[in-house]
Amino acid sequence: MNAAESHDHSESDPRRRLLLRALAAGWLVGGSGWARADTFGARPRKLPQGKSIFELDGKVLINGVRATRDSRIQPGDVIETGSDGRLVGVIGSDALIVRPQSRLEIGAAAGATRGFFRLVNGAMLSVFGKRDDTYEIRTPAATIGIRGTGVYTEADADKSYVCLCYGKAQLTPVTRPEEAELLSTTHHDAPRFLFRDPVQGKCLTPAPFFNHTDLELMALEALVGRSVPFWVSEDPYATPRRDY
User: Fold this and answer.
1) Average pLDDT over residues 225-236
2) pLDDT confidence of 16, banded at 50, 70, 90?
3) C-alpha–C-alpha distance, residues 116 and 39, integer Å
4) Domains along the chain?
């Protein structure tokens, strides 16, 4: 995967499927934000207790078994998606979109001092509930320590892309921990590339914003009964706004 790859605007791109569905269902995009139509057949809302999956497309495996809408996601699971696979789901107070051709390992048992998502390869957009302990997203090139944030991550063996969409996080290159950076953002303010081997003497460098949308973040927060902290003219999901 090429983390610097430009956003694919084709309608067949799974990364845009949620956006296109919303537009087709009556969401209007304007310079001041999102306006809601009267009806939305698949409007994201807090999942019922005992449910983990909101949307499932293509080939998705959980612990090697083909996932269904009734599958559960829990600590210890391994999620793998094929070239046409995508999962939108919830684990506890966290929600995530796992993109095609990804492998995500959910570490640590419930109640453990420090949990983590290990994104071995692929891409994931995630929102995390506030917590007292530090949660980590781990990739081959980076460790992202978070407490309650929205974050988009792409990973391959040599590099990672991280956009802290909002909240606080510490980004640490695995081979150059002395370059660690503590970030606090409100709206995609400081995307970063993290490399295993230095590029022009650095393993952590500024990056552009790409490959994820505000609507996807809004949908994920709605699945766990929250709303994004940035302002929109009309909040489409009418849930408590995060107070960053």
Assistant:
1) 71
2) very low
3) 37
4) 14-223 (2.60.120.1440)
